[in-house]
Amino acid sequence: MAEILALGISHYPPLHGKDDRMSWILKRMLQNPQLPQELRTPAGWPAAMRAEWGNDEGAASAARHRADLVAWMDKTRAALDAFKPDFVLIWGDDQYENFKEDVVPPYCISAYESFKFASPPGNVWGETDKTFELAGHRAAAKMLATRLIEEGFDTAYAYKPLHHPLGHAFTNAIMYLDYHRKGFDYPIVPFAINCYGRRVLAQRGGLPVFDRVIDDADLDPPAPTPRRLFDMGAATARVLAQSPYRVALLASSHVRGAVRLRLADLARLFRCRRRGQRAAGDPELDVPRRRHERAQAHAQGDGLRRHLDLQFVQGVPDRPSTLTWST
After folding, report:
1. Minimal CA–CA distance to 163: which of 206, 220, 89, 101?
2. How far apart are CA 301 and CA 289, in angstroms?
3. Mean predicted confidence (pLDDT) in 3-10
4. Which of 33, 87, 113, 125 has the maximal Cβ count within 10 Å?
5. Residue 250's CATH number
6. What's the alpha-carbon Rg for the chain, to the nearest Å?
7. Across residues 34-38, what is the average pLDDT?
8. 125 HSE (CA, 13 A, CB side)
9. Whether the predicted model's global pTM rises above the 0.85 cut
10. DSSP structure string for 181-243
11. How many domains would you assign to the chain?
12. Percentage helix, strand, coil, to 5, in the chain?
C-alpha cells in the first residue's frame, strides 16, 4: 500500500559555507546603487540587525543560526530514515542552472537513471574531492509524469541534464540532510519549478543585477501560478497514493520564502480533508490559494517568488488516509 511522508526544509542560508561567509548576500546588497545612504552602514539598521552583525560581521550569529538549522535538519533526516521511503521526490527551484535561454519549462520531472554532483569549494566539511552519486527512480518518475499529464497537467520531463547536473535547491537539500556525512542512499526524483518567472532569464537567476536596469521590456513570461502548483501538489498526492511506493515528498525552499506561507492553512486543510473529500475548486481550498496568489503578485520582482517551491506541498493534504506530516 502506498504511503506518503511530507517534509519541508530551507536550502538557504548556505550551510555548506563557513560562518564568516554567511553574510555575503547582505554584503552584496550593500553594493546596490539604489540603496539609501543611511542604510549602507550599521548605524542606519534596526537594532536587532545591528546586534546580529555585532563586531564580527555576523559570524557569531551565523554559528548560532547554523546550530538551529542543523538541529531541524537532523529532525527531518530522522523522520526520513524512520519512514524508509522507496524514493524522495524533491520540489525545488531552478535558478538559471539547468534551464536557460533554449528552454524554460514551468516545471520538469527529472527521470534520470542517476545523479552525480560534487561538494562546493571552500565548504564547511573541508571536502576537496567529495562526490555524491545518487540513484534516480525512472520508473516512478515516468509514472508520475504520465499520470499528471493524464490529469491535465502538461508536465515536462527529462532523461538527462541540459546545462547543469543538478540545481542547488536539490544538491543543498541532500548535503544538508546528510550534514553529518553518514550517507544518503535514497533514490531521488527532482521536480524543478520555474520560480523566478519574469526574471529567470532577464536577471539570470536569484541574484539582482546592479550594472544595468531591467525594465518591463526585458522581463520574461511569468512563473506558473500558486493555484496551479497547489492543485498539482494535490494531484501528485492522488497519483502517488494509488501507486505501490512509499514516497517522501520534500519541499526545498528558502527561509524567507517559507515564512510567507500560513502553516495554519495546512492544518485547517488537513482537518477538512479528514472530514471528507472535497472538490478541487471548493472554498476551503480557494482561501489559501487566493492568499498565496496575492503573495505571488507582491513578489513578482524579487526572490520571494522562490516560495512557490512550497505550493506543491500545500496541496498535498488532499490524501489524508495515506499521508504523514513530519513534525
Report:
1. 101
2. 20
3. 92
4. 87
5. 3.40.830.10
6. 20
7. 92
8. 19
9. no
10. -S-----EEEEEE--SGGGTTTTTSSSPPSSS---GGGPPPPPPPHHHHHHHHHHHHHHHHTS
11. 1
12. 45, 15, 40
205: how many CB neighbours lie within 10 A of its CB?
Answer: 19
Q: Which domain holds residue 305?
A: 3-15+71-325
Angle at the Cα of 234 from the Cα atoms of 136 and 293, rounded to 5 degrees: 110
**C-alpha closest to that of 85 among 211, 227, 203, 249:** 249
Residue whose entry in the numeric block shows the C-alpha cell 539609501: 36
Q: Is the peptide bond before 221 cis (omega within 30 degrees of 0)?
A: no
- Asked if the structure places residue 25 within a domain, the reply is no
Q: Is residue 22 part of a domain?
A: no
Residue 195 has pLDDT above 60, yes or no: yes
Quick check: is 37 in a domain? no
Reported as a pLDDT band with limits 50, 70 and 90, residue 262 is: very low
Adjacent-strand bridge partners of 253: 10
Say how far apart CA 287 and CA 227 lie, in whole Å.
11
For the residues 129-150, what does the mean pLDDT come to?
Answer: 97
